[in-house]
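Hello Y.,

Per our agreement to keep a running log of every chain we model this quarter, I'm adding this entry. I've kept the format consistent with earlier entries: sequence first, then predicted structure.
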Amino acid sequence: MAHKKGQGSSRNGRDSQGQRRGIKVFAGEQVVPGNILVRQVGTVVHAGPFVGMGRDFTLFALRGGTVKYYHSGPRSLVSIVPTPTPTPTPTSAPTQS
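Predicted structure for the entry above:
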């Protein structure tokens, strides 16, 4: 007589949730400081200018601007091109007579 269960339903059903890694913000998109750009294991994508790296290799924006991905030799990098901040134009104060 067989000692194996037919469907195996009572022994299955254990699986871990996905880590949801990958590129979170693509090239050309606008970001604000603190936005997560890439979730990864190890340095698949390296941090360029104005990009910080967390303890778990998460890359995040340090400044607001536009995201740019590029290659430098064998490395893939991500950087932020800062949006120019408008300089306030001095307005002449009304003179009182």
